[in-house]
Design brief:
globular; alpha+beta; 333 residues; Nuclear Transport Factor 2, Chain: A
C-alpha cells in the first residue's frame, strides 16, 4: 500500500497548522481532525480531547512562545498497526519544531534565540480524518537550551539530534512492502530480547543479536545520546537495568514500519520501580509509568539508529519530583 491518501491528509494538516493565526488554530485542527479527537501528549498536557482543547492548551501557547515556528521533519512514514491486527493506518513524523524562543512556555524563560523542541507524532487516520494523535516531545531538551539544568549530569551526550545518517527518512512516496516487513521483524526481535532482562547472555552479546555494532541511540535529555554497542551498554542500557526492578511487560498502542524505518508508542509502554542511582535519583518503593515513542532505522537485518522520547517529567513526578514545579530553583547558566 502507498498510504498516499493518509499521508496527504497529515501533510495538509501540517501546512494549515503552520499558516494559522492564533485565533484560527482550532479551525485548522477541526478541518482535518474528528470531533472526538483523542490527543495524548507528555506531562503536563496528558490527554486532551477535541480541536478546541488541543488548540488552546498546546498549539496556541507553543506557537506564541516559539515565533516563526517551523516543522523540520527527519522521518515521515505510514503503515498499518501490528497491534490491532494491521487494521488501522497511522502516519508518523519525527524531527524538531524550531522557532525563536520569544515568550515563556511552561514557566521556561525565553532566550530570544533559536530553539528546537524534539518531537515525534503518531496520527491515526480514518475516513479522511485524524482521529487519534500521540504527540511526544522532549521538554527537558528545551529547558537545557534555555540554560536550565533540570536533572543531575547525564550518562550520555546532550545535543540537538540530527536525522538519519542515510537521509532517506522522508518517505512521501510508496515503499516496497517487503522492506517494511523486514524492519518490523527486526523491531520485534529486539523487543523480544529487551523484554527478558535475563537472556543468559552478557548485555553486549544480547545487543549484538539485533543491533549493528555502530548503532546510535538518540536518547532523551536527562539521559543523552550514545554511540556503539559498547558505549550504549555502558552509558544507558546497563545503568537503566541496574537502576530498576519489577519491570512490567511491554504494551504498545501502535507498532508499525515502512521501508527501513519503523516505531511504536504506548500509554504507558511499561512500568518499573527505581532502585536508586538512575539519573542521579533516589530509590523508591513505587513503580512509575514510562510513556515512550521509539523510532528505528534498519540496516540489513539489524537496527542501526534509534530515536527515543520518554516522558521523564511524568515519570519523576510520580516519584514526588516535580521538575516543572521547581523551575525557580533550577540554576541557569
Amino acid at each position: 500500500m502507498s498510504f498516499e491518501a493518509e499521508k496527504s491528509i497529515v501533510l495538509d494538516f501540517y501546512r494549515a497548522l503552520s499558516q494559522a493565526e492564533e485565533t484560527a488554530i482550532a479551525d485548522s485542527i477541526s478541518g482535518f481532525c474528528s470531533e472526538d479527537l483523542l490527543w495524548r501528549g507528555f506531562h503536563p498536557f496528558n490527554e486532551l480531547h477535541g480541536a478546541a482543547e488541543v488548540a488552546s492548551q498546546f498549539w496556541a501557547p507553543l506557537k506564541k512562545s516559539l515565533t516563526r515556528m517551523q516543522r523540520r521533519m527527519d522521518v515521515f512514514m505510514a503503515g498499518k498497526n501490528e497491534i490491532d491486527g494491521f487494521s488501522s493506518v497511522w502516519v508518523v513524523s519525527m524531527g524538531h519544531l524550531m522557532g525563536l524562543f520569544d515568550s515563556e512556555w511552561l514557566g521556561i524563560a525565553p532566550t530570544g534565540k533559536m530553539a528546537f523542541l524534539r518531537y515525534c507524532e503518531f496520527n491515526r487516520v480514518e475516513n479522511g480524518k485524524i482521529v487519534e494523535t500521540a504527540m511526544y516531545f522532549d521538554i527537558p531538551h528545551l529547558m537545557m537550551q534555555a540554560g536550565l539544568h533540570p536533572f543531575p549530569p547525564q550518562t550520555a551526550a546532550q545535543l540537538v539530534q540530527p536525522g538519519p545518517m542515510t537521509h532517506d527518512g522522508l518517505m512521501f512516496g510508496p515503499q516496497p512492502e517487503t522492506e517494511g516487513t523486514r524492519t518490523l521483524g527486526a523491531i520485534n526481535a529486539m523487543i523480544s530480547d529487551l523484554g527478558q532482562w535475563n537472556s543468559g547472555l552478557s548485555l553486549e552479546d544480547e545487543l549484538r543479536r539485533t543491533w549493528c555494532d555502530d548503532m546510535i541511540w538518540w536518547g532523551p535529555s536527562g539521559i543523552g545520546a550514545t554511540y556503539t554497542i559498547e558505549r550504549y551498554a555502558k552509558q544507558h542500557s546497563g545503568p537503566f537495568r541496574a537502576g530498576f526492578a519489577d519491570r512490567s511487560k511491554t504494551k504498545h498502542i501502535c507498532r508499525m514500519a515502512e521501508g527501513h524505518f519503523g516505531g511504536f508508542f504506548g500509554w504507558p509502554n511499561f512500568t518499573a520501580r527505581p532502585t536508586g542511582g538512575f539519573m542521579g535519583m533516589p530509590a523508591s518503593d513505587k513503580a512509575g509509568e514510562f510513556r515512550v515513542i521509539d523510532i528505528y532505522r534498519r540496516a540489513g537485518d539489524k537496527l542501526a539508529e534509534n530515536w527515543i522520547f520518554i516522558d521523564l517529567l511524568h515519570f519523576w513526578k510520580q516519584q514526588g519530583v516535580d521538575i516543572l514545579g521547581r523551575m525557580a530553583t533550577v540554576p541557569r547558566t
